[in-house]
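Structure ticket #2291
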Amino acid sequence: MTAAPPPRPDTRTGGRLVVLVSGGGTNLAALLAAHAQPGYPARVVGVVADRAEAGGLALAREAGVPTAVVAPGDFPDRAAWDAALAEAVGVFRPDLVVSAGFMRILGAPVLERWPGRVVNTHPALLPSFPGAHAVRDALAYGARVTGCTLHVVDAGVDTGPVVAQVAVPVLDGDDEAALHERIKVAERRLLVEQVARIVAEGMRVEGRRVVVGLG
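Resolution: structure written out below.
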């Protein structure tokens, strides 16, 4: 009997990713490029944005990935938006939720529905320089090394346990744009590599420690 061929990337059911975006979607683009490769263990099955104008939505549609928009202004309060976001994500039955440039704090409906399975990228070496202006803050502080972090999302602002980090040196003459571009390169590589590891090898959270590769 001839063995069945391995499944094509577009027919895999494991490693289902839902990506949350607010802007242009450069990290999403990196994941989409990776998931098109036959050996990559994860696949983006849905993209959810908080803004209809988010550029990441166009990237997803071009790649044939379904999208949803859950705009806060369409809901009477934060609780209603949190619940709607969880429902929109749940439609795609994700194994892992990736916040990639999503400029909203995730509430309990998402975090409790996928405990320990929501990760976020941040352009600094956490716990240093949390928040929306991490690159600017690192420059203002005079840091000589900064970088990027992939962490598990909790209820705080960039306070969740660290999955992995990559250091990026601050060069003489760097401005915010130049430094951020170098961080983005490292961030995309980190995200693609670590998502593949999480999906292929498993991940658990033990207090502040994240273990990838459960053996």
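Closing remark: The chain has a mean pLDDT of 92.
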